[in-house]
Amino acid sequence: MPEYKQFPLADTAEGLTEADIIAWQVKPGDTVTVNQIVVEVETAKAAVELPIPWAGVITELLVEPGQTVEVGAPILTIDVDPGGKAAPAPAPAAAAPAAEEPAEEEMKPLVGYGSKAVVTQRRARKGAAPAAPVAAPVAVAPAPAAPVASVAPSKPKGGYVPLAKPPVRKLAKDLGVDLHALTGTAEGGVITRDDVQAAANGSAAPAVVSNADSGYDPATRERRVPIKGVRKATAAAMVQSAYTAPHVTEFLTIDVTPMMEFRERLKKSREFAGVKVTPLTFAAKAVCLAAKRTPDVNAVWDEAAQEIVYKDYVHLGIAAATPRGLVVPKVRDADSMSLKELAIALTELTDVAREGKTTPAAMLGGTITITNVGVFGVDTGTPIINPGESAILCLGAIKDTPWVVDGEIKVRKVLQLSLSFDHRVVDGQQGSEFLADVGALLADPAVAITY
To answer: Where is the composition biased (Low complexity) (predicted)?
Structure first.
């Protein structure tokens, strides 16, 4: 007899309450295995692919792509006993027990499903009498593996998400057809295989996205987009930080010509062959060294406990602009890394962030952050501290600037730094000393050997 379970939206990271369904990887009738990826969702922190903790046959998808779902709400139904297979007879005592699939209590679903009991019920198929519910709920236990973040899809145009089933989406991808450019001919505007094939053959009409879908109002000439996902989480975090931590920002302008010359020498060295060394790499190393001399900037104010917590490690956050908004993944134990190791770690971190593959876990637990507005040609800024931290360093653009050297005006490579810090934890003296140390290390990397 069929046994139906409902798969709930997982809590993929601490504090998440909802997620947007991006795309289904399965359809009704598909057979799935334990921990097979079934759906891609976007949370407030990243795009994540969710695995299912059971094997069976998908019977119903309960949520359309583009919809926002609360954590714990069911998103699909699965028959975990297709065909009503009878339980195998017990094996003789002398023989090892055999089974086609592991017992349910032995299955190891991935992290994110928590220890909450998931109500298991027998769901009636269409046209059939409803089945009786299963007596006991199934508790899904967490396992050590982490969810895998996915490649971010193209940003929906005007907030519009085209409606199409997973096989149709795959067909469109294989044929190079943009679903946003199509008008679905099925009921409710759903795009069909025929619509995709027609577009691939050049015979489909362009899509007309309704004002209701796009959020655009011709009367006011304004477009309204719902606040959700990364943008919503970032806004909440910045407001919380701005209103709870008394910010102080200090500025420092330095000549980094020696650093840039040293960078060129490293690029030609055999040890750094193929390694991307950027000004951010030097800044990351400088922050780690300077934090050892001024540990206050790497501490945090614990309001609940009424304590200042000093961290004996540096989990360095790197603010990265992505198509989904600002994310701040961390380099764990950055203070224990060499310059080369930092360069490699930063390259991997920023590449993963830009591709939308950063996992929610990679953005938790930072101790201090660097934001680099210089990549946009901006001189400096007054950054807002990330919640749970006490300082953030901002790097401006490195520009050729007239500079006085030994009494003469010369053109030098000049960089502006700004440091925002929480004045509850970091006094003006400590903040100034830290910023001066970072500046000294960037102005002359040889100073590092004196630390």
So the answer is: 86-100
Q: Which range has the top average pLDDT, 34-43, 44-53, 182-191?
A: 34-43
Among candidate residues 311, 301, 328, 193, the one with its CA nearest the CA of residue 244: 301
Active-site position among 180, 247, 315, 423: 423
pLDDT tens, residue by residue, 106-136: 333 333 333 333 333 433 434 443 433 333 3
Q: Please calculate the CA angle 208-214-218 and round it to the nearest 5 degrees.
A: 85
In one-letter notation, the amino acid at residue 220 is T
Look at residues 437, 432, 408, 429 and name the one whose alpha carbon lies nearest to residue 419.
432
For the chain, list the domains and their CATH numbers.
1-150 (2.40.50.100), 157-227 (4.10.320.10), 230-450 (3.30.559.10)
**Beta strands 247-255 and 299-302, pairing class:** unpaired
Give which of 256, 51, 63, 78 is closest to 163, Cα–Cα. 63
Known catalytic residue: 247?
no
